[in-house]
Amino acid sequence: MSRQSQPILVLMPPSPSIYQQLLGADFQKLGPILQRVHGPETRVLASGKVSVVYGRGWIVLLLNKLMKVPPANPGVQLRLEIQRNANSETWIRDFGGKPLITQQWAEDELFIEAVGGVKMAMRLRVAEGFLHFDPVHTKAMGIKVPKWMQISVAANVRERENGWEIFVETRSALLGLLFQYSGFIALEA
C-alpha cells in the first residue's frame, strides 16, 4: 500500500495592523476591546450613539459641507465598518445615513488618515488608558500645508465596559473648530 503525501497546511498568523505596527509594545497597553478594534481582524463592525458639533461661521459650514461631514446632531446613530488589508484600512462611518469614509495607513512612522485629497499625519500613543492621535502635519493634494492653514484631527479613545468612548475633533489653524463628534461605540457580535 503506497502512502500518498498529503499537503501540509501551514497557518500563518495575520499580519499586524497599522496600529500594532506604529504602537509596537504599547499596543498591549490597550484593553482587549480596543486591541480587537485596532488589531489584525480583516473586518470589524461597531455601532453607537454620538453627538456631532460644528464650529461657528459660514466658512466653517461651507468647509464641512465640502468635506462631506455629517450634519450637526446631538444624538445620531453611528455605524462603523473597518475593512483591513495588509497595508491599509478603510473606515466607513455612517452617521444616521450620512457616510464619512477615510483611508488609513502607516508612512514614515506616522499614522496617516486621508479623506478626499487631504491627508492628515498623526502620532499614535497610549497614555493613562487612552489611545491618543496627536496631529503632526496636513497635506492637501500632496502639498504640505503651512501650519497657519493646517487642518488637523485630534482624537482620544478610551475603553469602557462593552465598548469605547471616543472624542474626535477636527480643527483649522485659521478658523478654529470645524467639527467634533463624541460618544460611545460598541462592537457588534
What does this structure look like?
The protein has 189 residues and is mostly beta strands. It is 11% helix and 54% strand. It has a ten-stranded antiparallel barrel. It is globular and about 70 Å long. The protein starts with 17 loop residues before the first helix and ends with a strand.
> How much strand?
over 45%
Rg, rounded, reads 19 Å
- Helical region count? 3
Based on Cα principal axes, name the global outline.
Answer: globular
Mean pLDDT: 89
| SSE series | HHEHEEEEEEEEEE
Helix content: 10-25%
* Largest sheet properties: 10 strands, antiparallel, barrel
Return residue spans where pLDDT drops below 50 for at least 5 consecutive residues.
Answer: none
Which labels suit this protein?
single chain, 189 residues, mainly beta, ten-stranded antiparallel barrel, 3 helices, 11% helix, 54% strand, globular
